[in-house]
């Protein structure tokens, strides 16, 4: 079975390489709202969650994980992002009759308030407003192939809009979870998320007019055209281990390697302590070479120390209900707060 897992990992990596070939340089991916962690538990553990996920939040982290629950579950989360921007996620999963497979649906929506349009001629406002939003709809299927291996796939429709422009694309999330029988407290996970089409903003309702200052002629009619952009593709390999599994105490540790298509490889690590299966405390750290090296140089020169890339949180579970909270330090962007509510139906 271990050889099957390794073979699947190799095939998934080769498939992902095709997506990387579409990107000419780093920093070119769009639809970045797909990278906002919607699950406080995983965010608090430093995003090291590909091998941990075992409930409805797997719809975001690793689609193979929704095969673990044996009951229907509903999930809602809210993220207070930058300024007045909010990111909301809602999902539902249902095990099928044979108990070997599970289906799920999800929706992610990034929204912000309207803003009045201003111009050089009308700096106080034109009387018209503009807004922007992004949305992703997902349909997930996961199945146990053996008692040790589950595989899941999510098909997503992604749409972004700003003012009178919009972009539409499609993507797949593919993942696997492996629970080695000889290591009862160990789990391995691999996932490829947002493998899909390029997107391009289209639909401008009016042309622009510009004077040709070089020749003195004008105004000339100009039809702007946006450049296509790729989705934020990630290939993640994680490992998790239950250090303590006693009746009253549980300690879980996880480590994960993340390879994005628009930046350097990142390492994620996290821990979770649980008491009586009701109270949970979590912490995590992400090693991003660009941010870490830059912060080290600033701190060495005497600048204010930053805790960017650190995260933490807590959770409470009672009967069929669970509430989770996480906070992550985003440096100059401040502290982002994540809230979630889950219920077993």
Estimate the global geometry from the Cα principal axes. globular
Oligomerization state:
single chain
What helical percentage do the residues reach?
10-25%
Query: Could you tell me how far the N terminus lies from the C terminus, measured between alpha carbons in angstroms?
Result: 33 Å
Low-confidence stretches: 18-24
Name the average pLDDT. 84
Q: Give the strand order of the largest sheet, numbering strands 1, 2, ... along the chain.
A: 1-2-3-6-7-8-9-12-13-14-15-16-17-18
Q: Taking Cα atoms only, what radius of gyration do you get, to the nearest Å? A: 22 Å
Q: How many H/I helices?
A: 4
Q: Give the structural class.
A: mainly beta
The total count of strands amounts to: 18
Order of helices and strands: HHHEEEEEEEEEEEEEEEHEEE
Task: Indicate the proportion of strand residues.
Answer: over 45%
Largest sheet: 14 strands, antiparallel, barrel
Description:
Helix content is 12%, strand content 48%. The chain has a 14-stranded antiparallel beta barrel.
SSE map:
Blueprint: H1 2-20, H2 40-44, H3 58-61, E1 73-80, E2 86-95, E3 101-111, E4 115-116, E5 129-130, E6 132-144, E7 149-162, E8 165-178, E9 186-196, E10 208-212, E11 217-222, E12 234-245, E13 249-260, E14 266-275, E15 279-287, H4 289-300, E16 310-318, E17 321-329, E18 335-344
Antiparallel strand pairs: 1-2, 1-18, 2-3, 3-6, 4-5, 6-7, 7-8, 8-9, 9-12, 10-11, 12-13, 13-14, 14-15, 15-16, 16-17, 17-18
């Amino acid at each position: 079975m271990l050889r099957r897992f390794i073979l699947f990992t190799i095939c998934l990596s080769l498939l992902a390489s095709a997506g990387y070939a579409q990107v000419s340089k780093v920093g070119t991916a769009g639809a970045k709202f797909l990278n906002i962690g919607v699950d406080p538990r995983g965010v608090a553990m430093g995003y090291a969650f590909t091998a941990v996920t075992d409930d409805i939040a797997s719809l975001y982290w690793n689609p193979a994980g929704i095969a673990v629950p044996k009951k229907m579950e509903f999930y809602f989360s809210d993220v207070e992002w930058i300024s007045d921007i909010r990111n909301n996620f809602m999902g539902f999963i249902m095990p099928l009759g044979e108990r070997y497979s599970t289906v799920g649906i999800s929706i992610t929506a990034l929204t912000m308030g309207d803003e009045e349009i201003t111009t050089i001629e009308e700096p106080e406002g034109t009387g018209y407003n503009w807004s922007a939003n992004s949305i992703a709809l997902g349909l997930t299927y996961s199945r146990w192939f053996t008692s040790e291996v589950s595989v899941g796939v999510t098909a997503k429709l992604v749409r972004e809009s700003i003012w009178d422009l919009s972009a539409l694309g499609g993507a797949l999330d593919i993942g696997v979870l492996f629970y080695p029988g000889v290591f009862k407290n160990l789990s391995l996970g691999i996932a490829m998320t947002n493998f899909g089409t390029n997107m391009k903003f289209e639909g401008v309702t009016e042309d622009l007019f510009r004077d040709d200052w070089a020749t003195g002629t004008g105004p000339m009619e100009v039809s702007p055209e946006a450049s296509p952009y790729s989705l934020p593709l990630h290939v993640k390999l994680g490992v998790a281990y239950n250090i303590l599994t006693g009746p009253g105490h549980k300690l879980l540790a996880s480590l994960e390697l993340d390879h994005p298509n628009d930046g350097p490889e990142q390492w994620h690590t996290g821990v979770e302590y649980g008491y009586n299966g009701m109270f949970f405390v979590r912490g995590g750290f992400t090693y991003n070479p660009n941010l870490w090296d830059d912060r080290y140089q600033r701190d060495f020169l005497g600048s204010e120390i930053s805790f960017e890339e650190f995260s933490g949180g807590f959770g409470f579970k009672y009967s069929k209900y669970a509430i989770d909270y996480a906070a992550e330090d985003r440096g100059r962007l401040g502290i982002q707060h994540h809230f979630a509510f889950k219920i077993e139906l």
